[in-house]
Amino acid sequence: MKKILHPATSRGTANFGWLKAKYSFSFGNYFNPDRLQFGKLRVLNDDQVESAMGFGKHPHKNMEIVTIPQSGALKHQDSMGNSGIVKSGDIQVMSAGTGVEHSEVNASTTEPVTLFQIWVIPDKEDVSPRYDQKKIAPLLKDNSFSTIVKPKSEAQENELWIHQQAFFSIGTFSEKTETSYSLYNKSHCVYVFVIDGTILVDNETLNKRDAIGIWDTDTISITANGNSRVLLIETPMN
């Protein structure tokens, strides 16, 4: 097993007043040549958007974009004709493909919204843009990991998917749990990101917003303390 640690304090930062962000990888004005991406995971932004503010209409192309609100709600609109509210407990998936424009604005006029904005490099370019959204809660099992996004080739009816051999899993742990994650493909890598709480991975203690990238293994053993939540993103290594 090989690994690379990304402590929460090592992330890039930005404060635009209306937006406070932490960048796991190079993004915008934050550039770190050692933190360009991990496998096909290109962006993992930890954002807080103030009330009634947000990301105005802007374009994307050839990127798989996954948004997971942590608190509050976003008002979504796009050039495909989709509009609606994406709130805490939901997950949004968008394939930019040949090109799409969208906006994501805080739906509240009084409270901030917090979210993870995640970009994955696709395995197929210039596909038709698409949008999907689901509730996460019914997909999750307590004290274990549940896969919530799969590659198109692996997804069953009504499952969320993207154009990449990537798997997103979330673990929710109400009590101390010793568990493991078996990679779907042993040539893949896994980015382990602690949303809340504390976990132990390969003798490394990770706290809230710490992360570790792991490869050259087919199974990852994890001990999660109670009240912990963990995001796993498995992608091809190269």
From TrEMBL:
<feature type="binding site">
    <location>
        <position position="58"/>
    </location>
    <ligand>
        <name>Fe cation</name>
    </ligand>
</feature>
<feature type="binding site">
    <location>
        <position position="60"/>
    </location>
    <ligand>
        <name>Fe cation</name>
    </ligand>
</feature>
<dbReference type="GO" id="GO:0046872">
    <property type="term" value="F:metal ion binding"/>
</dbReference>
<keyword id="KW-0408">Iron</keyword>
<keyword id="KW-0479">Metal-binding</keyword>
<dbReference type="Pfam" id="PF17954">
    <property type="entry name" value="Pirin_C_2"/>
</dbReference>
<dbReference type="Pfam" id="PF02678">
    <property type="entry name" value="Pirin"/>
</dbReference>
<dbReference type="InterPro" id="IPR014710">
    <property type="entry name" value="RmlC-like_jellyroll"/>
</dbReference>
<dbReference type="InterPro" id="IPR003829">
    <property type="entry name" value="Pirin_N_dom"/>
</dbReference>
<dbReference type="InterPro" id="IPR011051">
    <property type="entry name" value="RmlC_Cupin_sf"/>
</dbReference>
<feature type="binding site">
    <location>
        <position position="102"/>
    </location>
    <ligand>
        <name>Fe cation</name>
    </ligand>
</feature>
<feature type="domain" description="Quercetin 2,3-dioxygenase C-terminal cupin">
    <location>
        <begin position="154"/>
        <end position="234"/>
    </location>
</feature>
<dbReference type="InterPro" id="IPR012093">
    <property type="entry name" value="Pirin"/>
</dbReference>
<comment type="similarity">
    <text>Belongs to the pirin family.</text>
</comment>
<dbReference type="InterPro" id="IPR041602">
    <property type="entry name" value="Quercetinase_C"/>
</dbReference>
<protein>
    <submittedName>
        <fullName>Pirin family protein</fullName>
    </submittedName>
</protein>
<feature type="domain" description="Pirin N-terminal">
    <location>
        <begin position="14"/>
        <end position="120"/>
    </location>
</feature>
<feature type="binding site">
    <location>
        <position position="104"/>
    </location>
    <ligand>
        <name>Fe cation</name>
    </ligand>
</feature>
